[in-house]
């Protein structure tokens, strides 16, 4: 089963992105027949930036995203959204890449389930 998570919210300030990543990690845990794809849009594109520093005991979305990538998740960030935030030229964490609306459209049509956060 292919599951696509489309994430729009800022990485910190609300718990939407945190909950999306918790779900992604739960889907990957012990289920070999699930392919997780994550498309970051709007302020969520900043979650793929490396070297995030969060207070002790606070969730770190960079670490959560890396954990999902390590377990096989595909992660893409909207290029237009990255441009609007001035981060297109910045390095993203390993395994994440800048993408396009065409790629998102393809992922939507290929997915068995599409969830938005």
Detailed description of the structure:
Helices cover 33% and strands 21% of the residues. With 117 residues, it is of the alpha/beta class. The protein has a single domain (2-116), classed as DsrEFH-like (Hypothetical Protein Ychn, Chain: A, 3-Layer(aba) Sandwich). The protein has a five-stranded parallel β-sheet with strand order 4-3-2-1-5, sandwiched between helices. The radius of gyration is 13 Å and the shape is globular. The relative contact order is 0.26.
Notable traits:
single chain; 117 residues; alpha/beta; Hypothetical Protein Ychn, Chain: A; five-stranded parallel β-sheet; globular
Class by SSE composition: alpha/beta
Under CATH, the topology can be stated as Hypothetical Protein Ychn, Chain: A
- Full CATH superfamily name: DsrEFH-like
> Proportion of β residues?
15-25%
- Whole-number average pLDDT? 95
What is the level 1 CATH name? Alpha Beta
Sheet with the most strands, sense and barrel status? 5 strands, parallel
Q: Per the principal axes of the C-alpha atoms, what is the gross shape?
A: globular
Question: How many distinct helices?
Answer: 4
Arrangement of strands in the largest sheet: 4-3-2-1-5
Over the alpha carbons, how many angstroms does the gyration radius reach?
Answer: 13 Å
């Amino acid at each position: 089963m292919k599951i696509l998570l489309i994430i729009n919210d800022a990485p910190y300030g609300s718990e939407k992105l945190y909950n999306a990543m918790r779900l992604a990690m739960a889907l990957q845990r012990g289920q070999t027949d699930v392919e997780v794809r994550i498309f970051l849009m709007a302020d969520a594109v900043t979650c793929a930036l490396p070297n995030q520093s969060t207070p002790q005991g606070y969730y770190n979305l960079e670490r959560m995203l890396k954990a999902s990538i390590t377990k096989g998740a595909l992660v893409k960030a909207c290029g237009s959204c990255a441009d609007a935030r001035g981060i297109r030229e910045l390095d993203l964490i390993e395994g994440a890449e800048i993408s396009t609306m065409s790629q998102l459209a393809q992922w939507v049509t290929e997915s068995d389930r599409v969830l938005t956060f």
